[in-house]
Amino acid sequence: MNRRDCILGCLSALTSFAAGLSPAQAAPPTLLVLGDSLSAEYGLAKGSGWVALLEQRLAQEKRALKVVNASISGDTTSGGLVRLPALLKQHAPAIVVIELGANDALRGLPLDMTRENLRAMVRLAQSAKAQVLLLGMQVPPNYGPDYAQQFAASFVTVAKEQKVALVPFFLKDVADVPNAADLFQSDRIHPAAVAHPILLNNVWAGLKRLLP
Questions:
Q1: What's the CA gap between 175 and 18, in Å, rounded?
Q2: Phi and psi at residue 36, in whole multiples of 5°?
C-alpha cells in the first residue's frame, strides 16, 4: 500500500468511527447564560447560584447539556449586546438564556434603548441558530407606576415580537412575597442562597420546553 492509499484508508476509518458515535459520545449542545449579578453568584458561595443548580438538575435528569455562565455583575443590556457576538462564535450555543435589564433600570437608562438592546440580542442568538429564553424583570413601586409597567412590558413585547420563550418575572416568589426580606442579602438587591432554588424553578418552567 502506498502513502496515498494509507492516508485515504485512515480518513475513511475516522469518518466511519465518527458516524458511529452515539449521542452520549458526541459533544453535548451548549446552553449559554448571559446575565448580570443575579446570575453571577454575587455575594454567594461558589456553586450555590441558580446557574450552578441548573447544571445539577440537568445532570440529575440525565440531560446532556453543557452550561456556560457568561454573566458579569453590573452588566447592562448594552454590555450584553457588545459581548454576545464573541460568545456565540466561541460557544455556538443551542440555547441562550438572556437575564439582563435590571441594571438598566437602576441606572435610569431609556426604556427604548433597553428594548432595542434586548431585541438585538435575541436576533443575534436566533441568527446563530440558537433558541432563546428571555427572563423578564420588574422594578419596585417607587420607580412610579408608569415606568414600572412599561419596563415589565418591554420583555413581553420583545418576546412576542421575536417569538421566543419568556419567563415573565425572574424574581417571582422572591421579590413579591411578604417575607421577601428573608430571601435577600443585606443589600436588599441580590437574592440570598436560599432564594436561588426558587429562581431555578422560575427559569425551569420556561426552559424545559427548549431542552433537547
A1: 49
A2: -115, -150
CB 114 within 8 A of CB 158: no
State residue 155 phi and psi, 5-degree precision. -70, -40
- Out of 37, 71, 78, 154, the active site residue is 37
Residue 140's pLDDT band (boundaries 50, 70, 90)? confident
Marked catalytic residue, from 48, 73, 91, 190: 190
**Beta partners for residue 133, in sequence order:** 97, 165
pLDDT tens per residue across span 112-130: 999 999 999 999 999 999 9
Catalytic residue among 5, 22, 146, 187: 187
Q: Is 71 a catalytic residue?
A: no
> Residue 196 catalytic?
no
> pTM score, two decimals?
0.87
Would you say 155 and 137 are in contact if contact means Cβ atoms under 8 Å apart?
Answer: yes
187 an active-site residue?
yes
What angle separates helix 77-91 from helix 111-127, to the nearest 10 degrees? 10
Domain range annotation of the chain: 23-207
Q: Which three cell numbers stand for residue 185?
A: 442579602
CATH code, 23-207:
3.40.50.1110
- Ramachandran angles phi, psi of 66, nearest 5°: -90, 130
